[in-house]
Amino acid sequence: MTLEAPDLSGSTAFITGTTRGIGKRIALALADQGCNVVSTGKTSEEGDYGEDRDLEGSIEQTAREVRERGAESLPIQLDVRDPEAVQAAADRAIDRFGTVDIVINNASAIQLATVEDLPPNRFDLLTEVNVRGTYLVSRAFIDHLKGLDEAWILTNAPPVTVDRSPGSGPYLWSKLGMSFITLSLAGELRGHDIGCNTFWPVTAIDTRATRHFGLGTEDDWRTPEVVSDAVLQILRHDPAEFTGESLYDEDVLRAAGVTDFSGYNLTPGDPAPTSAQMIDPDYSRPE
Fold first, then answer.
1. What percent of the chain has pLDDT over 90?
2. C-alpha angle with apex 26: 25 to 32, nearest 5 degrees?
3. What global pTM score does this model have?
């Protein structure tokens, strides 16, 4: 079925982690609806960035593809752990576009390891990129968002449903921290017409990280479009009313009328809900 999409003409989204994967797909999906995009991430075509040179995708490439869709885009290389860099990026985005009414925390570090096996510096990386980054980026825009008629802070993070995750505790703890920050903002900003929600895929998604860490096979994955389509559906709501929600992509799309998810699958069949079960071992799809 063809989903009804929001008209985002005149809107501007500041999205972290747009060089590839889910972040890039969200950027392009929003651009298709007329939304300007501030494309941020680590990988840039300017200068020498070592191993990043070998990675497919860059903030500039995503910006070019946004412009090909008729929207405007500003690429900004950004380390979300650096408060001065984050504030400077936010100020630059606002100066360029006048308003930024959609903030999407997508950038994340991932390493699935036990507490014993994960080195301290990798623990710090997970915490700083995921939790601190979400805190810094959201905080940098709060005052600006308060002055708008309506706005969004959305975060790619799971529902807070568990108190342990043997085998991936440090990573999942950092992702739950992203959710905790975002959902806390829903309460703190209530009355300002700012919708603060999280979104999370039910299945694993075909991204570089999924392939790099060997998280299943193509039979287990869906394309990033399943997430970007869900984000578009979230943006159809009134942010004053639709806030403080932890949302699975499938639930959002079912509510929009989707009954057949096969178009998002990489291979025939129905991928297991492995991503949802990472944070809720008892998760099962509704009958």
1. 90
2. 90
3. 0.96
